[in-house]
Amino acid sequence: MARKKKTWLTILGLLSWKPMSGYDIKKYIEIGLSHFWSESYGQLFPALNGLVDQGLATRRQAVSAGKRKKNIYTITPLGRSQFIAWLGGPIEQLSVRNEALLKFFLASKLSTSQSIHIIEQYRDQQRSLHALYLESELIYRRALENDELPEELASLIEWHKTPTQRDAKSNRQQLEVFYLTLRHGVLHVEARLAWCDEALSRLNGMSTRKEHGK
Amino acid sequence: MARKKKTWLTILGLLSWKPMSGYDIKKYIEIGLSHFWSESYGQLFPALNGLVDQGLATRRQAVSAGKRKKNIYTITPLGRSQFIAWLGGPIEQLSVRNEALLKFFLASKLSTSQSIHIIEQYRDQQRSLHALYLESELIYRRALENDELPEELASLIEWHKTPTQRDAKSNRQQLEVFYLTLRHGVLHVEARLAWCDEALSRLNGMSTRKEHGK
DNA sequence: TATTAATATATCTAACTGATATATAGAAGC
DNA sequence: GCTTCTATATATCAGTTAGATATATTAATA
Prior knowledge:
Order of helices and strands of chain A: HHHEEHEHHH
Helix content of chain A: 55-70%
Structural class of chain A: mainly alpha
Largest sheet of chain A: 2 strands, antiparallel
Number of strands of chain A: 3
Largest interface: A-B, 60 and 60 residues
Strand order of the largest sheet of chain A: 1-2
Distance between the termini of chain A: 54 Å
Shape of chain A: globular
Oligomer: homodimer
């Protein structure tokens, strides 16, 4: 009954930017979208076949010097119109699966030290993530200030070096969307770290009772 | 190769609290875990059959007055030990699927007004959620202050009315875990709302150029 | 008396994840 | 010159999950 096909629409959205191979698409998603979305190979290639079958994209072979041949997919007008239609539609509620919280919840009848251990693992995970995100954030911020392309995005963004009024705006817009979606990730990680602090201090408050509650 | 079975472990975790029917489990997850976890009927009942087959839980029929008969599942020692083993293991990275962010990212080469519209939808969704969460938060906070059971949890928590030292602690602990996991949700919703403000102000800054950047 | 809501269990298709298989090309190490 | 490692590139499968829907029964409402 064609219930979702989010993978299809995600691919169409990326192809609406520029033609890409399956591998390109996977890398694009990993670098640009991993803070809030993911797609697996298991979905990607069947979806590409489906898109071609349904006339939403076309496939052609390309052999660039020194590389092995690859399939380049290009969006069709039909594909573009389906992408636009989806964009305009309602937005589905986001879904999360947070195993740390699940364990914390389910472990609550066991020892407090078990609960604390779970939160500490969670906090450590999020701290490493935070360090990574802040590094990227700095790079983007500098790039936006100096109108320069960070190397990591060199393969993803078509950067106009001749800064006409129009090109400069396009450059800025592309950087901006990477920056803003990363900021979304940063704010979430910080929320999680704040929660860990809050939870740890409450749990400590519970084990050492009669303390004045923070 | 039995790669995951998170549904199985979630069910075992809940059964480690008390025996329940499939329907009870579903409701428990919806009320208590929905901020960070979900399970569907499609997994739940086959999983319950699997648990019984593998000797991790037992099933018995119960007919309470005026209600239709139901199957009550009880965890076995084997089930409990598998649950404990999983709790002690490493915690998987959390996964998110945020369609709002996906659309925002993919729409970035279209008009700014399209992007703004997507963020506004997202913000409105999160605002309603925020209102709901704050209501619950207030209820829990009051419950914790007055050592009282909020009605919504009456079916989920076994509340000891005779407040021996030990029972009072159990009461508090159970409230605390509901409160803290809700707080996790609240902090996340607030992070999303903060992001919407940040994103909207940056997008407005871009469309009305020459403004002094905030 | 009819309809709706809540309780309770079950099933199916479509979608998705993660692991793994396969192959080519360039780089690194020895 | 040979092996090994990494990056590029595509593909597939088994296990897992989501979401819709079917089906009864009892209680509440109109």
